[in-house]
Every structure is written in structure tokens, then in C-alpha cells.
Amino acid sequence: MKINSYKFLSLFAIFFFIDNDTLALLRYKHNKVVTCYVASWAIYRNHNGMFEISDINPELCTHIIYAFAGLNNESWTIKSLDPHLDIERDNYKNMIQLHKKNPNLKILLAIGGWNEGSQSYSVLASSPDRRSKFIDSVVKFLGEYRFNGFDLDWEYPGSRRGMPADKQNFVFLLKELKEAFKKSNYLLTAALSSNKAIIDMAYDIPEISKYLDYIHIMAYDYHGTWNRKVLPNAPLKSEDGQSVVDTLTYLLNKGAPSNKMVLGLPMYGRTFILANKLNSSKESPIGQTSISDGFKGPYTGENGFMGYNEICEELITNVQKWTTGWDDNSNTPYIINDDHVIMFDNPKSLKAKVEYAMSLNLSGVMIWSIDTDDFNGKCASLNNSLDLREKKYPLLRSINMVLSQIDYHNYLYDNNDDNNDKNNKNNNNTSSVMRFSNNLILIILFFLYFI
Known about the structure:
Layout: H1 2-17, H2 20-26, E1 33-39, E2 63-72, E3 77-80, H3 83-88, H4 91-96, E4 106-112, H5 119-125, H6 128-145, E5 149-153, H7 166-181, E6 187-193, H8 196-202, H9 205-211, E7 214-218, H10 244-253, E8 261-266, E9 268-273, E10 305-307, H11 308-317, E11 323-327, E12 332-337, E13 340-343, H12 347-359, E14 364-368, H13 394-421, H14 425-450
Helix pairs in contact: 1-14, 2-13, 6-7, 7-9, 12-13
Keywords: Disulfide bond, Glycosidase, Hydrolase
Family: Belongs to the glycosyl hydrolase 18 family.
Protein name: Probable chitinase 2
């Protein structure tokens, strides 16, 4: 009874003393986009890797994108790639039910992806008649399953058996989709490559920006086993022109509006097997020659790829075998076990990318994909999350924490500027003292509450 009374008084004190902005920080309140892709096939992964719609925490995302639907290249209509899962087992329906937990959440359906290729989309986009059939089917499909929008993930116009005309036809397709979406107010987004050569071949940036609500930039897969060299999957910066900084700078210079750009962040890493072992555990693997194959994780089962959940569980299970390191040049963590190397992202590296994206006034960030975060909270003992209050989703929670802190600091900065302009220095000083006192009380009570 004493404990319950104490908690009640603590909560009462928190809501009495706390200013709205600090409370917003602790609830991950910010005005930025956090788009979370969900790989529908993750439900077929084994053991701890199996991810279901019920595993989603809808309060950690502003937008959720269900990947992927496909294209029927006979009728030129949208189709489910897994009707048993999506329709018979109610995955579409269960996705929409997430609105009950977060009414402000926007849920979109993505079409395409790497496995769908480019050729059929190239044929589709080349004909006004085929585009019309496709768009009509999309509008009907979104309405039937109550999605809030549509994400076009054509990988990639102009390549992978596409044709040069794809660049202009992609504009036509987006323009006509946007026009058809007006009545239902559906969101229209697209996932764009981070590769400069593909950007030039595939996208008329100023034109597609007119019709897209958000531009999701897939700022990962810069390197992998195909390079035959150990290099970061998603470096913040680099000397070879292949990095987050280089991609964002390139897109902005080509006319992409910052308020529509959403930076993609990977919740996975790339694996390598060294051609020759390192001379010591202190030697960096960066730039070392690797063989053509990497190694697999126990859940994703993809050569050269491991989800963060697989990586962190490996660190906990075989802690004595792995040596951890950090590459300052790219802001990337890595781990080494004999001739095995994993380049990945953790809360520290993601924080640097989020802060850089926000310095450019980007609309927000995109996650590929939340089913490879530590959604079960198996790795809480690593204590590397920026938010230690919860065990599950350490990466996604860290990203939201950084965004909330940036938003809060910007609020304070803007308010201080307003107060200075009004020459209210005395009032502002008093307000700052009160804010500090209130926040200190909040912090003490908050941590006491959870002890």
C-alpha cells in the first residue's frame, strides 16, 4: 500500500512540476518522421528471429510501411505476394489495428523491393494504359485494406533490365498516382537508391519531388562482400564518395527538398571473411581483403548479412570470442572473431547519423527494418542503448531519444531567441532557473518511480 501511494504521489508531482517540453522528451515527442519498414517475411524466421505484427510497438514510429506487395505483369495490377499471410492470416488487418494504440500513426503499403526487380515496372511505366490500370487497382487495394498510403520501391528505374525512358516514365507514374490519391488523401512515398550513378540514371529529382510526400533514401549497402574488401555497410563519411554525407549532399545539390527527405538507417550489418587473418586484435580490418562469401546469421539466413538482433545476441553468447572496435573515419563499429568480421550500426553510430540529418533539416529518418532490431530485448545486458528504461528495441528507442533531445534543444534555443528579441532577459533567467529546478525534480522522481 505504501508503494502504491508513493508511486501515486510521485506521478502527481511529476505532472505538477514538469514543463510540457521535458515530458515530451521522455515520451519521445518530436516533430520528425520516423518511418519503420516491416519485412512481412520475418514471420517465417525461426526462434527469436520470428517477428509478427503483435511485436510492433506503434508508439515508436510515426509511419509504418508493410513490405512488400507485388505487380501482376499480366493484368498490370497490384497483388499480394503472400495472400495466405497477408489476407487469410489477417496481416493487413492486424497492421491497421495498430491505429488503436496510436491514432496518429500512418500505415502504408510498399510495392516492389529487390526481389521484384525492375523489368516489369519498366514495362508498366512505359504505357499510359498500363499505368491507368495499375493506379486504379492501387486505389482500390488501399481502400479495401484501409491503408493510409503507398510506397513505391521500384529498384531501379533504368537498370536491372530497365530502359533509359524509365527516368521520365517514373515521373509520369508518380504524377498520375498523386492525382489519383487526392480524393482519398493517400500519402505517396518512394524509396530511392543512395548510389550516385543510379540516382543520375533513375531519378529526375526536381520533378519526382513535386509528387512525393516523402523521399526515403536507402543510405546503406554502400559496401559488402561484393567489394572483396572489408568496408562499412553505411558509413557516415568516407574518402571514396560513398557515404551518408556524400549521398545527402548530392541529392540536395540536385534539387531534393530537405523537408521531404528521410534518411534511411540500417538495423543490420554486413559480414566478411578475411582472406588473411589480422596480425593482432588491435589491427583494424577496414580495407583488408576478404573472400567472396560472408557468413549468415541464425535467423535471417542470408549470406553476408546479419540483423542487429543476431549480432548483439552473438556478442552476448560468445563474448570471449569477439573483439570490438570503432572506425573513426566512417563512424562505424565492428567486431572481429579470428577471420570473421561484422561491420554494423549501434546506438552511437546511429546517433551521429541522426544528428547530421537533422543539421540539414531533413524531415526525419527511415528504418530498414524494425524486425532486425532487438525487438525481444534479449541484449539488454549490453547496456548500449541511449534509453535504458526499456529492454526492447534499443536502436529504435535510441533514435527517438536523439530526435526528442534535438527537438527539445531547438525549442529552448528558439524560445531564448524570442525572449531576447523582446528584451525579457530577467524573465528568461527566472524561467530557466524554474525549468532547471522542475526538470531536476522530474528526473529524481522518474528514476525513483522505476526503482
